[in-house]
Design a protein that fits this description.
Two copies of one chain form a homodimer. Chain A is 68% helix and 8% strand. The first copy, chain A, has 179 residues and is mainly α. In chain A, a hairpin with a 7-residue loop joins strand 1 (53-58) and strand 2 (66-71). Chains A and B meet through helix 1, helix 3, helix 5, strand 3 and helix 6 of A and helix 1, helix 3, helix 5, strand 3 and helix 6 of B. Strand 3 (91-93) of chain A pairs antiparallel with strand 3 (91-93) of chain B, so a sheet runs across the interface. The structure holds a DNA duplex (30 and 30 nucleotides).
DNA sequence: ACTACTTATTCAACGGATTGCGCAGCAGAC
DNA sequence: GTCTGCTGCGCAATCCGTTGAATAAGTAGT
């Protein structure tokens, strides 16, 4: 269980609604920890039951009401406790790589098409991350040190994937000609 | 659902027992798709029920009996069907990165220690992968093209992580001095 | 006027994944 | 002679995560 900790980290930074969190999970942390809004709302409910967070109701006009969640001292303690114990190793789940592993059965042309689509997505993300990173850099890298490092992880990850994609592309293209 | 496909890919390559598969998940594919033996045995049971695989009992002396699983034509069809439809985007779950994101609360020294441990693990994996890759290369890169590409993904992933780790290390070390 | 998208939250159902436990025998270390 | 570790399989409980749907009101486009 550790979505809770990801949420607590984000709340440590600032008060937020479930909706806000869901969006934040789409950037920086999101690349490395993905969660749907249902999951987040559920987890916020549990965290509230355990007094790790509190919320206040914010009525809005035009938009639906929202609940702004704040981390409590108890939540902060839990976070610190978690930070102290060793992290479980990183897991990845890359379906496309499994496809490559089973590539002898696949249609090379179709794989190449999919590779291109995925590369486009990665390139887009890379651009977004790089923009955010240089923005943080301009605002002062020391204040945003941890967010900056988080983004760097995302950037290096995209770059590594794209590099791999290049290798795959040339290898598959050669296959395609010789076959 | 896609552990099933990862298993089918491995079985496509060769007949294997649940135990064998569990070990294979620790290498190449494993870095990108992790699964415990319980999960694998369970999935093999289901695949068998659905006639996607069959097995034969192998009594062994010294060691416990084993079941060697083979992919069936029906399983192969399912695999091909899956290969044709678009892969769901890669997900990562990196607890240590969440720790960095919440780094202002953490003890920098402890983070540095953990970073070193994780780096050691990554370096070990990198070495294993590189050995396997060069072994495949010697045996003829074309026969093992897909396994080779799979390994390359693992290698690039380790390298990217280690590069990131270096950035984190220098940044945290600077923090540690100034604080 | 109709459609589509965004903000905002929540429920219900199912399936996938993790954790903990148990069995069983052999090999090698200390 | 005991203990650890590897090979090999399996069950049960619980938790995590995904999918699908519902509600509700505003805004922007065609």
């Amino acid at each position: 269980m550790s979505l809770r900790h990801a949420i607590l980290v984000l709340l440590e930074d600032q008060e937020a609604s479930g909706y806000d969190l869901a969006r934040e999970f789409a950037n920086s942390i999101g690349l490395v920890w993905n969660a749907t809004h249902q999951q987040i709302y559920l987890e916020l409910g549990k965290l509230n039951d355990q007094q790790m967070v509190t919320f206040r109701h914010i009525p809005q006009d035009g938009k639906p009401d929202k609940k702004l969640y704040q981390i409590t001292d108890k939540g902060r303690e839990e976070l610190i406790r978690w930070l102290r114990k060793p992290a479980s190793p990183a897991r990845i789940r890359d379906a496309f790589m499994v496809k490559i592993a089973g590539g002898n059965l696949a249609d090379t042309t179709a794989l190449l098409r999919e590779l291109d689509e995925l590369s486009d997505m990665r390139r887009e993300r890379l651009a977004t991350f790089q923009e955010l990173a240089s923005k943080l850099d301009r605002e002062g890298r020391d204040q945003h040190l941890y967010s900056y490092l988080t983004l760097r992880r995302g950037i290096l990850d995209q770059q590594a994937w794209l590099e791999w994609a290049e290798e795959v592309r040339t290898a598959l293209a050669r296959e395609n000609v010789s076959a």
